[in-house]
Amino acid sequence: MALWLVLMSAIVWSTLGASEREAVGEVLAGRIALVFVGWVLGLIAVAAVLRVLHQRYVGAPHRLLEEARVVLAARRPQQLKPRGTREMQALAVAVNELAAQRDRLRADMDAQVTQASERVQQEKDRLAALMAELHQSVVVCNHAGRILLYNQRARQAFRALSQGPQLAGGAELLGIGRSIYAALERQVLAHAFERIQQAVAKGDARPTAQFVTAVAGGQLLRVQVAAVRASQGVLGRSTEVTGFVLMLDNVTESVAEESARDQLLHGLTEGSRASLANIQAAVDMLGYPDIEPAMRERFLGVVREEVASMGKRVTDLAQRSAQRLKTRWPLEDMLGADFAAAAQRQLGARCGCPVTLDAIDPVLWLKVDSYTLLQALTYLGTRLVDEFEVRFLQLRLARAGAHAQLDLVWGGQAMSNETVMSWEMDAMRFGTERTPLSVRDVVERHGGEMWFERERVRHQALFRFLLPLASSQPAPGSLAAADLPSRPEFYDFDLFQSMEEGRELEDRPLAELAYTVFDTETTGLNPSGGDAIIQIGAARIVNGKLLRQETFDQLVNPGRSISAESIPIHGISQHMVEGQPGIGEVLPVFHAFAHDTVLVAHNAAFDMKFLQLQEEATGTVFRQPVLDTLLLSAVVHPHQESHRLEAIAERFNVAVLGRHTALGDALVTAEIWLRLIPLLAEQGIHTLRQAREAAQKTYYARLKY
Fold first, then answer.
1. Contact, 488 vs 127, CB < 8 A?
2. What is the pTM of this model?
3. How many Å apart are CA 448 and CA 446, to the nearest integer?
4. Helix (H, G, I), strand (E, B) or coil at 89
5. CB 63 within 8 A of CB 85
6. Which residues in the chain show pLDDT less than 50?
7. What is the pLDDT of residue 232?
8. DSSP category for residue 146
9. CA dihedral 145, 146, 149, 150 (to 10 degrees)
10. Structural contact between residues 390 and 384, judged by C-beta atoms closer than 8 angstroms
C-alpha cells in the first residue's frame, strides 16, 4: 500500500505543469508533517482491517482444517466449535454431523465385532481370571525377552527384588514391553532357551528347563522355563518358538531354613556321636574295680557333662521344630458361618455336650488358620467340661469394628484369672496327644486378642477372640481398586510379533516405540538459579497403549525451601516433602524405570534441564531420545493460537485430571501423544528421526532454560 501511494503520487506529480507544481508545493509546504501522519495512520487502519479479514477468511479456515483433522483421527466422539463467518459455522456444523454419523457407524461396527469376537473375549477373560488367581509368579516373554504378560503375584515377587521398592514398587524391573534381562542374567536364560530349542528340534512335546539363580540383594529365584510355539492349526505342532513362559519362586527363605535345619541336624548327629564316644570311654573306665575315687568322680563328671550337652542339643532341635510349627500355617479366607458350623460339630464330638449357635453373622468372612483355631476352641471346651463340669457351650460370631468377634460361651461355675492365664499359656493337650502350640500362640498367629469375660445378668461366662476379617482391599504395595479395572490387564500378546531387533531406533516407526511420558514439579521456574525437583511422575506407553498400572509417582525432598508462589500451583507444601528421599535416591530408580524407552514430556526442555543439572551429583545420565509434545503440537497445528497443555487437551477432547501434579500431567501428556502420532503420520512424519527433525524447525524449539 505504501509503494502504491508513492507510485501514484509520482504519476500525478509528473502530469503537473511547472506552475501547478509550484502551487501544490506552496500548499503542501507547511502541511508535510500532517500529510505524513495521515498517510501513516491510513496505512495502520488498512493493516488492521486486513489483519481482521485475514484471521476471519484465511486463518479461520486453516484452524478449522486442523481441528477437522483432529476429529477425523479421534477414536472417541468429538465435535468442532462453530466460529468465524456464517459459512464457516455452517461448515463446522456439517462436519460435526458427518462425524456423528461416522461415530454411529463405528459404534455399530464395534458392536458387531464385539458380538462376533465374544468367544475370544471369553477366553481372554478366563486367562485374565486364571492369571489373577494363580499363587505362582508367571511371566511370559517373546523370543527377544520382552515381557508381554505377568500376573499380580509376579509383580509382588519383583517388588522384593527391586533396588528401590519404596519408590517404584518393582515397576522399574517388571512391565509390559520391558526386557526380562533387567532382572535375570542374560547368560543363564540364554542357556535355558538353548536347551529348550534343542528339545523342540528333537520333537519334545513339552520342553522345559529349570534353574536357580541369584538376583539383586542376594535373593534366590527358582525359574522354570517353558516354550511358547507358533500355532500350526490341524497340520501339526510348530517347531518355531515365539516366546517363553517363566514360572518363578523366591526360594531364599526356604533355602535358608533348609540350610539351618541341616546344620542343626548335622550338629546334633556329630555332637551326639562325639558325646556317645566320650560317655562310652568314661563308662569303660568306670568298670575297673581299682579305680581311684578322684578318677571315678572325674569320669562321672564327663558322663554328666556329655549327657547335659546331648540334652541341650535335643532341646534346641525341639524348640526350633516347635517354632516352625507355630509359624508355617497360612491364613486363608473362610466364611464365618462355615467356620462356626465346623466348630459346633468338632466341639460336640470332642466335648460330649450340646453346642448351639447364636447370633452368627451370615455374611462375615474371616482370615484364619481354621485348623489351629479349631484346636484352640476344642482345647478350651474340653477343659471346661472336664474341670468345671460345664453342661452346654454356645458360639457367637459378629463384626466388631475392623475385626470379627468370636465368643465361646458357657454357663456354670466361674473361674479365676490365674486359671484362665494358665490355660492360655500351657501347651494344648488332647488326651494322650500333645501339640507344642498354646492358645496364646494361635491368637498371636492371627494377630488378634483373646480374653475372659463374665456376663453376670445372664449368669454366663465367655472366652472372646478378636480375629482378622478377610479384606477385599489389595495387598500392601499393590494398586488400589480405583486405579485398576476389576480384572487388571497385564498382558499384550501383540508383542509376540515384535521385530525390533536389528533396527535402528531413529528409523523405527513412532507407533512401534516404547515411551516413558513424564513430568516434574519444582520449587520454582529457574533451574539454573537453584530451583529443584519436588515430584516426578511418569507412565509408560507400549505398543500404542497407555499402561496406567505401570506408573512412577514420587515426592522428592529438594533440600531447600519451596517458594510460596509455587505452592498454590502444585499444592506441595514443605511438610509433604519432609522425610521423603532426596533426588540422589529417586533419580537412579526413575532412570531404571525409563530404561530402553523414548522420553516424552510437554515443554521437555524445562524438565530435562532439571535432570541434566543432577547428572554430576547423582551419576545418572539420561541418554534416551526426547520428544516434546509442545513442539510437535506446533508441527501438526501451526495455525492454533495456543499450545499450552490445557489447550491441546481441549482440542483432543482429553480429560484433564490432576493438573499440576506430576503424574496427572504425565497421563494427560501421554493421551495427547497417542493422538499426535496419527496426525504426524498424515504429514509424512513416521519415524523418530523425522519427528525430532520436524520439532527442531518450530519456533518454540528456541526456548532455553
1. no
2. 0.59
3. 5
4. helix
5. no
6. 165, 233-235, 325-328, 472-489, 499-502
7. 52
8. B
9. 70
10. yes
User: The C-alpha cell of 452 is what?
Assistant: 475372659
Distance CA 303, CA 84 (A): 109
Cα 669 from Cα 656, distance rounded (Å): 10
List all residues 6 or more positions away from 409 whose beta carbon is below 8 Å from its beta carbon: 358, 393, 394, 395, 396, 455, 460, 461, 462
Backbone angles phi, psi at 316, to 5 degrees: -60, -45
Q: CA 162, CA 158: separation in Å to the nearest integer?
A: 6
Active site positions, annotated: 660
The amino acid at residue 241 is V
Angle at 285 between CA 283 and CA 287, to 5 degrees: 75
Check residue 304 and give its pLDDT.
83
CA distance 293 to 285: 12
* CA–CA gap between residue 242 and residue 228 (Å, rounded): 6
pLDDT of amino acid 520: 94
Cα 261 versus chain centre, distance? 37
Contact 644, 651 (CB under 8 A): no
Which domains does the chain carry?
Answer: 134-328 (3.30.450.20), 332-468 (3.30.565.10), 504-702 (3.30.420.10)
C-alpha torsion angle, residues 199, 201, 206, 207 (rounded to 10): 30
Can you read off the three cell numbers belonging to residue 682? 498424515
Task: Return the closest-CA partner of residue 510 out of 261, 683, 704.
Answer: 683
Nearest to 66 by CA among 56, 80, 51: 80
CB 517 within 8 Å of CB 600? yes
